[in-house]
């Protein structure tokens, strides 16, 4: 597997020694789990959206992004997911990585310090160049949108 270097920096190293580094939890995992750096338990009521701190910032290689994705177990078992999934951390961003959690479940959920709340996936970026044209080439599908195939 190809690897790229993502530089990682604790924002306040002394206060983050109890937190694990983002890491892959299996040999072929695509995403690195991220722990919550909340100072005290944070309650997410049903429908609530909160930014959860990670306690770190990153430097991503040019031509890449870090995608912030939900952890499937958290989403399925508790209804907690990422509101802007996938979130994007651009290669030129140097601020704290924050996780935009939403509770879509029916019960309040508590985020504790060190809970794994998201995963980060390093992904290549292909930038498009827009070209203004008078009309688009025709396809069989045409303008058929949501549900047009009957599914």
Reconstruct the topology from this structure.
Blueprint: E1 7-10, E2 32-35, E3 42-44, E4 49-53, E5 56-59, E6 64-69, H1 72-78, E7 80-82, E8 87-89, E9 98-103, E10 109-111, E11 116-124
Description:
Helices cover 5% and strands 33% of the residues. By secondary structure, it is mostly beta strands. It has a single domain, classed as Deoxyuridine 5'-Triphosphate Nucleotidohydrolase, Chain A. The strands form four sheets. It has a four-stranded antiparallel β-sheet with strand order 2-11-6-8, with no helix packed on it. The two termini are 36 Å apart. The model has no long low-confidence stretch (mean pLDDT 93). Keywords: Hydrolase, Magnesium, Metal-binding, Nucleotide metabolism. One of its GO terms (biological process) is dUMP biosynthetic process. Belongs to the dUTPase family.
């Amino acid at each position: 597997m190809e690897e790229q270097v993502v530089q990682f920096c604790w924002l306040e190293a002394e206060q983050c020694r109890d937190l694990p580094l983002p890491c892959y939890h299996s040999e072929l995992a695509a995403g690195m789990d991220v722990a919550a750096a909340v100072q005290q338990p944070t309650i997410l009521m049903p429908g609530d959206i909160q930014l959860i701190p990670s306690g770190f910032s990153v430097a991503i290689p040019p031509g890449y992004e870090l995608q912030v994705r939900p952890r499937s177990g958290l989403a399925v078992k508790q209804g907690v997911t990422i509101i802007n999934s996938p979130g994007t951390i651009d290669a030129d961003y140097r601020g704290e990585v924050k996780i935009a959690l939403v509770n879509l479940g029916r019960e309040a959920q508590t985020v504790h310090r060190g809970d794994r709340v998201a995963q980060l996936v390093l992904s290549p970026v292909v930038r498009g160049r827009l070209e203004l044209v008078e009309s688009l080439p025709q396809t069989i599908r045409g303008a058929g949108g949501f549900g047009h195939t009957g599914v």
